[in-house]
């Protein structure tokens, strides 16, 4: 086994061990590397038993701050398929891919168009579009199982379309409502379902907002009748709680589905988000 191929195997073994599974000799599944959890979810759903997926970002890890180790960089060039979102969410991975270009790469930037905001997966229809691209690329790598990838891709699309309908129906009375978020990560979601996002801390949840930003958020609350400030549990609630206390508002958790633990899943987190939105938005 070459050193680079061993790097891929090492990452995959670590990923499997982290999930409580085992790997066996002679495994002919495709080796797929991804750089964040939403991409992992898509590949696992579409690839099924024909793929083994390793995520460069460990469960609960900081997606933005990921710094690939040398073996990770080598593994990117040797994987059967890499699925990544370019454009600045993970600049170190962008640089690594420039050094070690894989033969097969799906860049999720093709379904994302909001510039600095990477959270396209909060729009289920955009995630479905990525699933179709992954199915096509897996079929290119592994034509023998093309029909399987196509069928699973279609199944994923149907489930995400159903999720979209559930969101649209549930949030229909809330169209035009203001979503006040401590972390401005919900642009795709608010655009899809006719909401308005006001971010207290901008895109980076770790940057302390300046007083002017707090004043703008307070004015938006007063003008729109918003009653809840949503915060990301992984980033903490201090800013949201201070502003909520000043304005007499409630706080609630809204998950950007970015820092995800090993026992959390995309469908479960999206369902929890919808419940929080219906509970916390000011709807007609």
From TrEMBL:
Protein name (record): Zinc transport system substrate-binding protein
Keyword ATP-binding (UniProt): no
Naturally occurring in which organism (per UniProt): Blastococcus haudaquaticus
PROSITE patterns reported for this sequence: PROKAR_LIPOPROTEIN (PS51257)
Family statement drawn from the similarity comment of this UniProt entry: Belongs to the bacterial solute-binding protein 9 family.
Recorded GO MF terms: metal ion binding
Domain of life: Bacteria
GO biological process, one term: metal ion transport
Record keywords, A-Z: Signal, Transport
Gene3D superfamilies listed in its UniProt record: Nitrogenase molybdenum iron protein domain
Keyword Transferase appears in the UniProt entry: no
